[in-house]
C-alpha cells in the first residue's frame, strides 16, 4: 500500500480550523484555537467528529479484508458459550454465563443443595442483553443482594458517562419496583430487620463534579422522596463509597482522595444508628478497615509508604489504640488484606510481582504465617477471586500470565494445596508451549532499573545478535500508582502469531514497585514516567528484541498522556502510535475546576494555579508542546460520552497536530459516538474495535 493511498481520499478529511468558530463552554487560561470543539451540543461539532470518522474509514478501507480476518481470528479464540466458576453466598451459588451471538453476560444463581449448586433449576438475576435492548451502550454498576437472597439493588448506565440509575428487583417474582434514583455509585443493604424490614444505603454523585458526595438511606417499600440524607462530603477532593465487612456485622463508609482516607462504621443491624469515626482524616494518611471478632483490622500507611497492618477494638478504634500486626516493610507493598474467621491473606507486591501470603490465627488471636502460594512463571498476575464466605477454610484466587489463560484456584488451608477450578478455554488451536515470557530491566536516564515484561513466540529470534528485525510493540501507563496487570489476552495472539514481540513497561508513576515507585512518577517528577518509557523502548531495540524502525506503542487515558509526551520527546524512535481516550490537554483541563476529576487530581498532577506546578506541567503537556515536524503514524481514539477524559481533548490534539506535522504518515481520529471511557460495551462490538486497531498497527509495521 503506497503512502498516497494512506492519505486518500483527501476530500473526506476534515479541515483543521485555525481560529475559534464557536464560543467555548468555559473560559480557558491558555490561548486555544480549538476550544470551539468543547461545544458538545452544537451540531457543527458532531458533524466535525463524524467527518473525522468518515476520513478514518476511508483511509482504512483498503484494510477491510484484514480487519474482517482479524475479527474472525480473535473470535475463534473465544469460547462464546461459557460459564464462570460459581461461588457461594448464603444459600445460593452465583455465576455468569455467555451465549454465542449475545453481546453481554447473563447473571444467574442456583440454590445450594448439600453444598453444591442445584443441578436442575437456574434463576436469572440480570440479563445484560435485555438491559441493553434499544441502547447503544450498557454497563452494570453497583449490585448487592439482601441477606435472605430476595432483593437485588443494581444500577445501570446507558450512556457511557458513568451515569448510573438505581433499581430494586424482587428476585422471587422478577418484578422491578417503580421509582428510580439517578447518579448512584455504591449500593449496600443493611442486615435484615424485624418483620422483614430492609434498608438500603447508596451514594449519589454531584452533577457537575461527578464525585460521589452523599450517602442516603432508603427503607424498602417507601417512596424515594422520603429517603434520608445520612452524610455529605464537602471537600471536592473526596469521593464517598459504602460497603459491608465480610463477616456481615458492620457497614463501612469511606471518604477518600488520591492521598487521604477516612472511615466510619455502623452496626449492620442498626441502620438508623449513629456512625462511628475510626480515625479523623490527615493529609497523606490512607487506611482501610475490615472486622473480625471484635477487632478492626486496619491497613495503614501511617508508618511508611508501603503500608502496615494494625488492629484496634471496635469500642476504641482511634489511632492511639492501634496495635501492630504486620510491620511496615521497605521493599514490600501491602496492597490489601482478605480477612476470614480463622485466617487472613496479605496481598503484597515484592520485586514488582504479586504475592499471596496466608496467616492463621492462634487461640489468642495472634497471626502466624502459615504459607505463601507459589507461582511457576517469571511474569504473572495473581489476586483474590470472589470469596464471599467468612467462616471458611478455603481461599479462591485468580492466576494468569502472558502465556497462561485466566485461571481460578481454590487453596485449602489445612493441606496447603491448590486445586484448579477452571482455566479459560482458548479454542482455535492455541498452544501455550509456542510462547515464551520473560522480564528484563532497562536503565533509565537517572540510573534507575525499570522492569519490562515480554511475550513472544518461541520460534522467533529474540535478544540475539541477528534478531533485530522483529516488529516491536510496547505498552505503558505509569500513573495513579496503578500496577500494570500482566495477564492473558487471546486477542494478543493475532499480533504474536504474525511475529510481533510484545512488551509491557512498568514505568514510574505506576505501583509496580510499591508506593515509592508511584511517588517517583507524579507531581514535580512526572517526567520520569516518560523518560522511563523511552529508556525501555531503546533498551529493547538495542538488545535484539525489536527493529528500531518498526516500533509501535500503545497507551490509554493517562497512558494516552504518556503516548503524547514520548512522541513529543522522541518522535523518531516510534513508527506507530495507538492512543486511547488520551489525557493530552493537561493545562486547559487542570485549569478548569468545573470539570469532573480536576480538583481531585491536583494530588496526582499538581495544581497549575501554583506557579511551580504551572511551569512544570506546561513543560510536558502533549497538546501544548506540539511543534512543526515529523510524527509517527497515529490512531487516536475517543468516545463522545467519556466523563473521565472529555472527547474534545483528543479532538483538539488531532486538529492542532494536522496543522503542524510535516510528514505523510496517517493521523486518524476515531470517535465512538455512543460509548464512554472504555469504548464499546458489547463484546462483539469491542472485538471489532480491536480488529480496527490491530489492522492499523500491522500495516504500519509492514505486516498487513
Write a compact overview of the structure shown.
The chain has 704 residues and is an alpha+beta fold. It contains 13 helices and 38 strands.
Keywords:
704 residues; alpha+beta; disordered N terminus; six-stranded antiparallel beta sheet
Describe the structure.
- With 704 residues, the chain is an alpha+beta fold.
- Helix content is 18%, strand content 32%.
- The protein contains 13 helices and 38 strands.
- The protein has an eight-stranded mixed sheet with strand order 31-32-34-33-35-36-37-38, sandwiched between helices.
- The longest helix is centred in the first third of the chain and has 18 residues, at 43-60.
- The radius of gyration is 26 Å and the shape is globular.
Mean pLDDT: 93
Structural class: alpha+beta
User: What integer value in Å does the Rg equal?
Assistant: 26 Å
Count of helical stretches: 13
Spatial order of strands in the largest sheet:
31-32-34-33-35-36-37-38
Q: Tell me, what's the shape?
A: globular
The total strand number stands at 38
Q: Which stretches of 5+ consecutive residues score pLDDT under 50?
A: 1-29
Distance between the termini: 9 Å
Main beta sheet: 8 strands, mixed
Strand content: 25-35%
Helix proportion of residues, in percent? 10-25%
Q: What are the SSEs and their pairings?
A:
Blueprint: H1 3-6, H2 43-60, H3 64-76, E1 82-83, E2 87-89, E3 92-98, E4 106-113, E5 116-117, E6 123-127, H4 128-132, E7 139-145, E8 151-157, E9 165-170, E10 181-182, E11 184-189, E12 199-205, E13 212-219, E14 228-232, E15 239-244, E16 250-256, E17 261-267, E18 276-277, E19 287-292, E20 295-300, E21 308-313, E22 323-326, E23 332-339, E24 343-350, E25 353-361, E26 367-372, E27 381-384, E28 394-400, E29 407-412, E30 418-423, E31 435-443, E32 449-457, E33 472-475, H5 493-496, E34 501-505, H6 515-519, H7 527-542, E35 551-556, H8 558-569, E36 576-580, H9 586-590, H10 602-605, H11 611-620, E37 633-639, H12 648-658, E38 667-672, H13 683-700
